[in-house]
Structures are given as C-alpha cells and as structure tokens.
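Appendix C: a fully annotated inverse folding record. The material below is reproduced so that readers can follow the format used throughout the book. The structure is listed first as tokens, followed by the designed sequence.
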C-alpha cells in the first residue's frame, strides 16, 4: 500500500510506540488520526496539529465512536494500527481480579471492538471488493509467558489468536491482518523500572517499532507478513 494519502487510525497513540508510529506514517505521506485517554496529552498533540479523538477502546460505544469519527475525518479507512494497551503485573498469589479484567478489557476486548468496526468499513473499500490492513501490536509476552506477567501475557496470547482468526476471515476480502511482537521497548510503559533504564540506548526504541509497522503497511497489497517479532540486537 502506498503511504501517500493512506487513511490511518492509530489507537493508543498519544505517547510511546503509538505516537512514534503515527509520526513515521505521517512522514511517509499518510493521513493519520490519533486516539487516547489522557486529556493533557491530547491537548498537547492537538496544539501540534494532530487530529486526536479521546476514547476508551474497552467501552463499546466509545470504540464505535472512535472508528466512525476517524473515518468521517479521513473520508474512509485504509489502515488500523491496534496499539492501545497496558499492563498490570503481579504474581498469581497476589493477582487482583479487577486489575486482571482491566488488562483484558483494554488489550483484548478493546482491540476486538476497534478491529470489528474498522473491518466493517474496510470490506466496503475498492467498490465493495474490500481492501485494508489491520496491524495488532502484541508482545513477545504473547509468545511465551514470564513470572508476574500473567494478565498481560494472557491478553497478548489471546490477541495473537484473534489475529490468526481474523486473518483467515478477512483475507478473502483483501484485508491483511498482522501481529507485531516487540520485545522490551524503552517507553513510559515501564515507569521507573531500573531494569528498563539499564543500557536503555541499546534496547528497542518506539521508533524501531514504528519503522517495522510502516514497512508492513508499505508492502504491496498482494502480500503481507503474518507475524513479526522485533528484538534488540544486543541489549545487555
């Protein structure tokens, strides 16, 4: 897909991987709509000239409003980068049910709701023949679990399964569905974690994932990458 004038929605894009991806796509000529929940970040990005829609993707009515609002602003929708997500980490013995459900609601239910609405628009592209790209931002935690990451890992494993199911459903409609699995990325997601700060310059940066996403989008429509793992070369 040619990035020039491509109509793209990036969720969870007021910081980190989402914002870096939006910037990279816009640099390539795409028209991009952002989304997020933090009013201060949204206001700052609007000052920069971005079109940002405030929405909690885990709430169905807000997810529907987000996708429809993005499509209305862009005049349609070609690409969805499903990036909204978060994590709460605790060992099984200390796992709180409310926090567990919050992770699943955002990372899994929210991703499904936004993808559903986006796909309903994409199947109408190309005069009804269908055309589009959905990229789900997962994690290597969705490929193998680790201690304390039960809720987060479960959500990303499940998102990978959804990606595979949607891929089989939507390929006949000319819609590509891919799963990107970054390893440790230096973002605000890790908070003040000293392990993340250690050798930060050698770890993956949000711009690295943005580059990978842009490459997937730019691939000719006749082909796509099903899954992409992104690791730092030597983070130690």
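Designed amino acids, in order:
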């Amino acid at each position: 897909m040619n990035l020039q004038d491509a109509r793209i929605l990036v969720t969870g894009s007021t910081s980190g991987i989402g914002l870096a991806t939006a910037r990279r796509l816009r640099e390539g000529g795409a028209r991009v709509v952002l989304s997020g929940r933090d009013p201060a970040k949204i206001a700052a990005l609007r000052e920069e000239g971005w079109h940002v829609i405030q929405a909690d993707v885990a709430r169905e009515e807000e997810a529907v409003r987000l996708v429809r609002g993005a499509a209305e602003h862009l005049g349609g929708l070609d690409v969805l980068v499903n990036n909204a997500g978060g994590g709460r980490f605790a060992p099984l013995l200390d796992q709180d049910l409310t926090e567990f459900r919050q992770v699943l609601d955002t990372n899994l239910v929210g991703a499904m709701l936004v993808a559903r609405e986006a796909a309903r628009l994409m199947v109408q592209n190309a005069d009804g023949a269908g055309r589009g790209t959905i990229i789900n931002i997962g994690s290597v935690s969705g490929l193998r679990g680790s201690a304390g990451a039960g809720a987060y890992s479960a959500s990303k494993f499940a998102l990978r399964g959804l990606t595979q199911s949607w891929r089989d459903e939507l390929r006949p409609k000319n819609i590509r569905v891919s799963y990107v699995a970054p390893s440790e990325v230096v973002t605000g997601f890790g908070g003040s974690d000293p392990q993340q700060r250690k050798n930060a310059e050698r770890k993956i940066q949000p711009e690295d994932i943005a580059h990978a996403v842009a490459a997937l989008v730019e691939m000719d429509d006749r082909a796509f990458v099903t899954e992409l793992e992104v690791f730092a070369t030597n983070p130690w």
